[in-house]
Amino acid sequence: MRHHQLLPLSVIGVSLVLALTQATPTITSSASPVATLLPTAPSADAQAGPIDDTQCNIEELEQANDSQLYTILQELVLRTEFFQHFAVDLEQTCPLSKEDSEQEEEEEFECAGGPAEPDPLLDAFGMAEEEPAEPACHVDTSAQEFQADNPFMTTATSSTTSSPSNTPHTQSQALYELSKQGFQSKEQAGAFQWKQQTDLVEPKPLGAKNKENQDTPVTSSTTSKQSAKTTNIKKEEEDDCALDIDADHNNGQQQWLPEAFWMDMCSHVTAGGTTKIVNLALNPERNTGYNGTHLWNAIYQENCIGIASTNSNTNTNTQDKSVLPFVDDNNKEVQPRCFEERVLYRLLSGLHTSTTLSIAKHYYMPSKRKGRINWEPNPQYFMERFKDHPEYIRNLHFSYVVLLRALKKATPFLYNYEIRTGNIVQDEAATILLKRLLDSSILQSCSSVFGAFDETLMFRQELENTNESDAIALQQSFKGVFHNISSILDCVQCQQCKLHGKMAMLGYGTALKILFIKPSALQLERNEIVAFINTLAKLSQSIREVRELTHLYWMREQEKQQREIDKATLNATTVSSHAESIPITKAGWDSWNTVDGAIGAIAALERQKLISVEQEAQLVTLAIEQRDPVLLILTKHYFSSSPDDSQADLVKLRDLLQARGLLDGTVTAVTVPVDPLDYPDAVVVGSGLAGLAAALNILDRGGYVVLLEKEHLLGGNSNKASSGINACCPGQNNNTSSKSDALAAADSVEIFTNDTIRSAGTAARPDLIQVLVSNSESAVEWLQSRVGVDLSLKAQLGGHSSKRTHRPSNGMAGAEIIYGMQKAVRKYEKKGQVRILVDTKVTQLITEESDLEADKFNEKTVVGVEYENMKDPGTKVTLMAPHIIMATGGFASDRRPKESYLSQYRPELLQFPTTAGAFSTGDGIALATSLGADTASMDQVQIHPTGWVDPTDPKNPSKTLAAELMRGVGGILLNDKGQRFCNELGTRAYVTDKMLAHNWKYYMTSKWDANSEIPTFALVLSSAASSDAKKHVDLYSHKGLLKRLEGVQALADWMGQPVKTVASALNKYQADADKGKDEYGKTTFRGQFGKDLTKEIFYAGTVSPVLHYCMGGITIDTDGNVLDTQKRIISGLHAAGEVTGGVHGNNRLAGNSLLECTVFGSLVGRNLPLQERQVTEQQRVKATSGDEPASNSPSSDSKKRQVSREELAQHNTPEDCWVAIHGVVYDLTEFAEEHPAGPASIRELAGQDGTEAFAAVHNQNILEDFDEDRIGILV
After folding, report:
1. Mean of per-residue pLDDT scores for the chain
2. Which position among 418, 587, 1193, 1199 has the lowest Cβ density within 10 Å, counted as fewest Cβ atoms?
3. May I have one GO cellular component term (predicted)?
4. pTM of this structure
5. Which residues are catalytic?
């Protein structure tokens, strides 16, 4: 059978709605979206229509709700202590298989984290930031004053909680078997054993026909054993029947079930020894971002209710789309559902709808950063889920009618129920309100809805056909399925979601119990009453929320349409080949305002007789027809129409024009700059991966770029990256032999998004995360196909749900990517399309007044930069361009006590070492903010747990990163006492927190004291782990950061610890690995140590926490445009990479840095408009010649020449640097200055065989680019 999901669960974090949503039928409707039901949708019949399976319509129900019910219910649940406090056990274990449970535990770890690791916000794209100390899924159990005299705790063995909490559910098909067995407690089985029918056969799915050997999802082992027994039914036992069914409907034959059968409807909403009292008013239902997709899959696979038979009840005469039949695997209609199955489905669908409405209504959390005081709605989310499915809203109405019928039937019991909390005033108010609610059924405006559902129609069809065994089977099945769904609530890992799921399911169970039990036998407990009334209130509120969200949606749609009209008007005046992507003027310097100013300056010069009439005409031609940049810029900055301007200013302008040759010769002599790079399409500031990606995309489109880098070498911090680059590429995972490969194959954009949001926490920006993740696959493919980078290996790093971090098979990711990018960009130097200036620092951004709309764009437009050569400071050069791209990196190395961003936002971290280069000083942020650019997350600085401590220079503030991979392959961390202290595979924030907690002040306050000494630890790998990370181990060993140690004694000596202590720690780790879980929650144990520790080969090094990445920076939009503090675009200014803020929220996920640089750098370079140019013949010849292959192939002499090791050793100076690699000798004297990692690592190999050091970092194919430097063969 094919099943269809009711509503996507990507961000629905609420429990009960998991049930049956996989079994939603295919819906086809010719009606317009929303119009079928949504009240304010543009449809005449939108507010009308019968509610199928009932005897009332939408108008009657909403009138009753609005006039009376809603107000009373809200007063009850929000104003009275009795109905606010709910007893719930949120610690029950999940009844799924062990494997599923392990997955749940992993998710729980993230959910239950503290402020440093808040719970994700999946499609929440703008949640709260620093305010909440607890994750969104946390439940406030602060009502402890209620526990002293707790009336709930006396009901542990009552019907509500009678089912044993330790019922075993350990098999992989646990839920399916649970449904098959039917009974979950001895009491339940015993209740049936003494009253079985003589013709009882194996029960069938709900409503199924009686067929031999039919497979059924719901059966009873107890009843099957009794199938051969005969039990006489006595007339005096008629009052014990489960349903109050008129004998006339079954020819005088009653179908007997013990009264106790329906009493335990709520038994699987368990309350065990860890029950807590929760104040529902303090824990309202809202968006938590929880993803329960895996639980939906469990329900789909193991809890299929079954397909109805042709005996389905047809008394309802329904045409409602919500009760359409199932479809099979061929998408063909099968038999319609029985009435009972349809009722249960519609109840669950209605509750799911209510949950979704609560999320949509309370979607965005309060946020100072966003200026939100209260929770705010997301009507777009609402409309996306309901516009094509108005039947889901009808199921909400249906559910409300059913619960109102239960309220009516329970009136005698509830009217006489004594409300007692100890607060006399509160109890009296609650009693009055409850009775007023019960009396609502007699009001004319409400009376019709209280009797609109007829529960006596349920289970009647089988009785009318005298098929008593079917009737019993049907009731068993109905209750069994309800119990199954209730049990799955314990698998929900978000506490707040589980709270509302259990409360609603208990409310539903109570309603069904009321409906199926004779009023004279009804007994309800306090917790059941509380849940029932709160569920009624929930549905009542949801019905109003439909109208509110619909109205809000159409209001915003009108506003959106108006904005689109405004944008279209703006684009019509914008000269841009890609205006739809980035609305920017053709070029800031040549706007009509600038041309107008130039004409004024020219006229003033002629009036003052400083230029001739001929020269005036020539300059006017240059300004209007040629828009000469030199003329327009000079007149802009050296002329003003102010009457205060002196003759001297005009004389100065005339002299400058004369000096530039604009007053001599003809117009054709000065039309445009000879070299397009004098006025390029873009100036890229910074040459890390973000800058190179932007530049290469522009160059590939035929544009012109000037690349400015303040260091002598290109690459920035990107060159140091070692873990890899993330990408969701499920299609590439053909090998699923291992569990990790299977997870990689099952990876999706949604899962990757959730991981990123979880890491980003409360400061997550979903819009930027969506751009990052959705472009990840294409980014990696571009690096592979366009740049030629090998990214064939994948690993699963901390915080990831799948193997998605790509790295080279023979080298470090950052070095390989930067080398390839640099090579690709430099090829355009020969074509004259790019100019690369190193040792060059930008000192100022040049702007002019913007003529764009002030409500969307900043008053300033960036039109160029001012820079200076670091080797000749003080000499400023101006370079004009229509687009400036900031890719200058972060500020982790700026330690100036008063001026740096670290001292402003995180002064306690000033003494921490860092993995960032000394150039990471926040220059780009300062330049942008000087123009009014906004910033985000500036206080969020990532501390990486493992930076290598060089034993030869332990106090050096610059550290080499010990890549995440070292722990991923099985490396463990030991403290100065030789003990483990954490799950090494936890997130960076978690591991760092455990490390810093070795400092007493931090342990007590969770705040780092700037005067404290940074603790150090041992990172230890086994021989197996070191083999998995051979490239990294070789590189770190070559640098002297890792030491090879033979046997545990050598390891203990190196650590300065007794061998017994170290061996004990390793033995315990091995024992935990054998069990599959350790005390810190670690469940993955790769690279285990050998059994004989005396013979094990260890690799160990010293590490400490280090500043690694700055999440804060310039605020951008999804196109990479820089925004000011009013969220307006600063035209002409773009940014990508670590210089920006918001992409990573509070904490960057490992592997997302290189991805961010590639995605956003490429996005900017791909979308910004290029200038229209008339290419000269000289430029065309140069561009063509650049395509010709260079004749750099090695000569026959260099191929044949043999170089001895003695000769090689003679070339060992910086001025004469020969290095042998893979048997070939190269002269790397000139290349050493261009080496992305600096010349030192090349020169230290001068005169030697550098194969081992080279192979630790690079792929051999890189050497193809060095054929011209080849000397000969090493012999």
Report:
1. 75
2. 418
3. endoplasmic reticulum membrane
4. 0.49
5. 944, 967
